[in-house]
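#struct-pred

JT: dropping the chains for the assembly here, can someone run the whole complex?
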Amino acid sequence: MACITLLSDFGSASGYPAAMKGVILSLYPSAQIVDISHDVERHHIRAGAFLLWMVAPYFPEKTVHCAVVDPGVGTARRALAIASGGHFFVGPDNGLLIPAAERLGEPKVHHIQNEKYFRPEVSRTFHGRDIFAPAAAYLAQGLPLPELGPPITEYIKLSFGEGIRRGRILEGEIIYIDSFGNVITNIAGKLLHELAQPGTMLVVEVSRKVVSARSAQTYGEAEPNELIVTVGSHGQVEIAAVRESAATRLRARPGESVRIQRPT
Amino acid sequence: MACITLLSDFGSASGYPAAMKGVILSLYPSAQIVDISHDVERHHIRAGAFLLWMVAPYFPEKTVHCAVVDPGVGTARRALAIASGGHFFVGPDNGLLIPAAERLGEPKVHHIQNEKYFRPEVSRTFHGRDIFAPAAAYLAQGLPLPELGPPITEYIKLSFGEGIRRGRILEGEIIYIDSFGNVITNIAGKLLHELAQPGTMLVVEVSRKVVSARSAQTYGEAEPNELIVTVGSHGQVEIAAVRESAATRLRARPGESVRIQRPT
Amino acid sequence: MACITLLSDFGSASGYPAAMKGVILSLYPSAQIVDISHDVERHHIRAGAFLLWMVAPYFPEKTVHCAVVDPGVGTARRALAIASGGHFFVGPDNGLLIPAAERLGEPKVHHIQNEKYFRPEVSRTFHGRDIFAPAAAYLAQGLPLPELGPPITEYIKLSFGEGIRRGRILEGEIIYIDSFGNVITNIAGKLLHELAQPGTMLVVEVSRKVVSARSAQTYGEAEPNELIVTVGSHGQVEIAAVRESAATRLRARPGESVRIQRPT
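RK: done, full complex below.
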C-alpha cells in the first residue's frame, strides 16, 4: 500500500483535490493518499516548494509526492517525474519539486511525455487531474520511471539559498511564514547554536525593523509579547512570538533579508 | 476496498465530518474515505450540487457519494439512496444529489426507511452521522439498494439549466464561483468553440457590468489584469482573471445571468 | 487496519499534520488516519478537549486518538498515553485528553518515557511528530501500553462542569461555539426535556444579554431570525439561530455563564 502525497494551491474545499483523488483511486484503489496542503498561496511556487521540502523526508520510501502550484498550466512548461532518495516527485517544471528532491538524494529527472499514462482527454487548465495524478498512481504501483518519458538534465532550479554566519552576525532570508506566523529563515539551525547560548539577547533586523529577541530552545520559554529566535522543527532558524504572530508584528514577508546579531 | 466520498457544509474543522467517518469506519474499517469539500456555503444546496456534479465522474465504479447540505434536517424531508451509472448517492431529498446522479446515468431513487440500517439513536439535527453515514457504509460493502427502502419516482429535482447560443451571443447563468474566483456558467464549452476562435475579443455582460474579455484556451495566455473567457476543466464556459478573482472584479454571484457576445 | 485520529491547532494547511502522518505511515503503512480537526483555536485546550469528547465515541474500538494542543511543548509537561473504554489517547499532560477518556471509560494513564519509541531526534517544538505520532502508530499496531512508560495517577484534570436545573431555571456554562455559531453548553439535553415542551418560549441570559428563544426539536422548526434552544447532536443543550450565527448575535464566548428560564 504505497503512499501518495498531494500539495496544491487549489484550496482544500474547491473540489479540485478530490477530482485528483478520484483519478488516483480509479487507477489504484488501495492508495494511501495524504494531503500536505491545498492552501498554498495561489501561484506561490516558493511557498509550495518549502512545504514539500519540509514534509517529504518524514514519509516512507516509495512515497510519490504529487505537487501542483502551476501558473504556467497549458503553456509550454513541461511535466516532470523525478526519482530521488527512494521517493518520487510529480509536477510542473517550475522549480516546485526541486528543493525537496535535492534534500532526499540525487534527483533523476524525467520529462513526462508518454500519453499512454495520461487521462484520455487532457484539459488545458487542470494537468493535476489529467497528467500528474495518473502519473503518480502508476509510479506508486511500480511503473518504471523511464516509462513516463526520457531523462533530462535541463530543468528549472529553485533554491532557498543558505544563510551564513560572519562572526557575531547571521545573515539570510525569509523563506516561509507558517500558519502560526513564525518567520522561517534559510539559516541552518546549527549556526544559531554556534552564535549564542540559549537565553542570550539578540538584535534582529527584518524588513527595516530592528528589534530585540531572545535566543530560546522552545516556545514555552518565552514571555508574553517577547520575540524569540529559535530552531524550528524543520531545523531552520525561525523568529517566533508566543500566542501571537511574529510575522504580523514584524510585517515580515518571504524573500526579505534577515540579520541576527549578538551584541558584544 | 470501496470508496466513500463526503461532501457537506459542516466546515472541515468542525468535528462533524470526523463523527461521520467514525461511524463509517465502525461499520467498514477498510473504507477508502475521500472528502470532496466540507466548506460548501452553509445551506447552499446548488453549490453543493455543483461540486458533486463536477467531481463524481472521476471516481471509480461502486463509489458511494454521501452528501449533506441539509437545511431541512429533522423535518419531513426524506432521506434518499440512489444508484446511477455504477455509483451510489446518499443524502437528503432536496435536489443536492440529482445533477451528479443524472450526469452519471439513469438514477434509480430509493427512500431510505429501514431503521435496521440507522444508528441506534437518531438525533434530530445530524442525520449525516445517524442515517446517511451508515447507509453509505452498508452500500459500499454491497448491501442491495432496495434493502434501505422502496423505490420512489417523485423527488425534488434540481437543474443548473443549459446556456444557449443565438448567433453571435451565448446566454446562460452563473452556477458556481470556485476557490480562485473563476465564474463558472451553465454554458457548455463547445458553444464557446463554435462562437469564437481563441484570441477573439468578446463582450461579457454579468450582473449589469459590461466588460471586454478575450477568448483563451488556458489561463497562461492571459495578460495581468485581463479577463478571459475559457472552457474550464469541468467542460463549462468560465470567466477568469489571472492572479485575481474575476468574481470579485465583476461582483458576480451564482444565479445571475451571463451574456457573451462576439462583436461583428 | 486500526484507526488513528489526529487533532491539533496546527492549521490543516500548515504541513505539520502531514509530517505527523508521514511518521505514522513510515511505522504503520496501512493505518487508517482520520483528521478530527487541525483548526482548533491556537493553544485553546478546552476547545480541543471538547471536539475530542464530542467525536471519540463514534470511532471503533482500538482507535488511537492523537491530540496536540500543546502550549507547553518543550517544557517539563509530560507526554501521556491513556487506555479507556477500548480506545487509546496520546498527547500532552494538560487536560486535553481527559474529558474524552473519562467519557469512554475508566482511564488508565501512563507517562510516555521509553525513548525507544521516539523518533531518533526529538525536536523541542514538535512533539506531535517526534513523540506522539510514533506512540500512536505503535499502539495502533498492538504495542502494550506499559511499554511506553509507567502508570501514573497524578495528571492534569479538565472538566466542562455540569449544568444544573433549579425548578424553572437551567444554569450552566458555554463550552464551545461550533462552526455554525451554535452555542453549546454544559447542560445535559435531558434537563431541557424536563424543563419545557417543544415550542415553549424561554428566556435566555448569556453574557448579560437577555433574549427570548423557543424550545425546538430541530433547526428546521425555527423561523428566520428566531433563536432556538435545542438539544444538539452531541446531547448537550445548545442555543442556535437559523441561517445565522447565534454566537455572533449574542456575542457569546466559551466560559461565559448561561441561564435558561421558563416563564411562569
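JT: nice. Chain B has a mean pLDDT of 94. The helical segments of chain B are 16-27, 45-55, 98-104, 127-140, 189-195, 246-250.
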